[in-house]
Amino acid sequence: xxxxxxxxxxxxxxxxxxxxxxxxxxxTQLAGTEEKKSNSNDIKVQxxxxxxxxxxxxxxxxxxxxxxxxxxxxxxxxxxxSYPQSSTYADKLEPIEWIVLERDSKNNRALLLSKYILDxxxxxxxxxxxxxxxxxxxxxxxxxxxxxxxxxxEKNQIVEDSHISDGFRDDxxxxxxxxxxxxxxETEAKKYFxxxxxxxxNKRLATRAxxxxxxxxxxxxxxxxxxxxxxxxxxxxEDGIFYNRIVERYKDEALKFEWCIGNSFYWLRSxxxxxxxxxxxNSNGALxxxxxxxxxxxxxxxxxxxVWVRYNKEKxxxxxxxxGDFESIKFGKYNQSYNSEKSDWNEDPIEWIILEKDSExxxxxxxSKYILDxxxxxxxxxxxxxxxxxSNIRTWLNNEFYNTAFTEEEKNKIKEVQLVNEDNDDxxxxxxxxxxxxxxxxxxxxxxxxxxxxxxxxxKDQLVRAGAAKGTQYAEYRKLGKIRKDKQDEYExxxxxxxxxxxxxxxGAQASTAAVGPDAIISTSGNVGSGLNRRGVRPxxxxxxE
Length: 546
Hints:
Elements: H1 7-23, H2 53-59, E1 78-84, E2 93-104, E3 109-114, H3 136-149, H4 152-157, E4 158-159, E5 161-164, E6 176-179, E7 181-182, H5 186-193, E8 207-208, H6 211-215, E9 232-236, E10 242-246, H7 251-254, E11 263-264, E12 266-271, E13 278-281, E14 287-288, E15 306-310, E16 319-321, E17 328-339, E18 344-358, E19 363-368, E20 373-374, H8 392-405, H9 408-411, E21 414-415, E22 417-419, E23 435-437, H10 444-451, H11 460-467, H12 473-477, E24 501-506, E25 513-516, E26 522-523, E27 536-537, E28 540-544
Antiparallel strand pairs: 1-2, 2-3, 3-15, 4-15, 5-6, 7-15, 8-11, 9-10, 12-13, 13-14, 16-18, 17-18, 18-19, 19-28, 20-27, 21-28, 22-23, 24-25, 25-26
């Protein structure tokens, strides 16, 4: 008797194979989770096509020039690498969006920080003393994250960086480590985001987590997300470090932070109050030295990676400093010499010294050859927190002086540029946020660049002397300070006609400015000698040229 073949045995493997082909591609979903639909608050990531990474960086504004994450223009976002974000599936990679913290043209690199929190990884799994150099988070970022987020071409674009991890205040040991991918330190967060008080600027440091990061299961715990303001508000210690406090009488203050809802906190690589805790950035953008309940083993903090990438778009072989040649131009007019016949001031052509030519962008940086005016209360008098951004002199230069000195045709040639306003490291005074300006004063670093380091750019004595300036007749009429007669023996002959002028960098106190003396010495404190405190104005600007 012939046995019939069992069709069930034949069909079953085929059916299993079909089911695998239909659903197998979804098997990399996070363990214990279901794919969740995005709501209106979830982050949507879109690919920005067209430019390579260096071109994107060159077009983006630095983070210090905008208010908060909601104000960032699409052109200021850099896409580099890919990682799961809007989906909870680990294999659904999407372009990572980054913001630009710094363009370091000297070393041909740029520092990027992810716009969002990308994952939920503990600083260390064991609740014990642990520094960044020994942390499991550092190992994860430079291996697991690095390999998953970047392809080989992108890895070649990443520059290894050696940096320190500033620890808690009593830790005397400083560790230097080298990383491809890292998280910011407390010092770096302060440097790049320039927020030191309870202002809207905190929003620039605060951020949200991606949908993927919010659903990562880290030892049974998910990323903490702020759901309400409640009574939770914030205080500040004497050294400027924020902490949380829950007090009934601060309820009204807490309502100011409704914008925090939906944000999460993320780790910094600095330790907190001791080596068992970690510093973090709170949902309101506050820098916090973590208490013991935010130990290195806490599972609720987010990961916001940072990387240095190769970038040489700003390196311009056609750009040159030319101050040593004393090349000058005349541009605009301003009161300078007195006309006794008319009993009035002559609006003479302003003479400018060319500091740098940028032939690729057809522009040149120029500074007035002479001190043109005297302005009192350069920073706002009596206000401790004044910086270049909200200074009287910046307002005057970009309004009254700009409208008085230049015709409409000349105004069209003046370029609005982004200024980096560095802190004064000698006195720990704050430079404030970076600004966009047409007319400005040089900073400490710019004065050093163009006037003090010119060994290979012509006669050094000429370069140094070009840093000094004498005032016009009009500036002297405006009570420009001069070297006192009883002090003239302390100066060389060529210095005697010169006066001091202001820089835009802060001086020894927050309400003062650094300055350049009649001897061309840059005073980071702003103290330039007796009789010279009535300092002058020596405007600078970038202009178009053919």
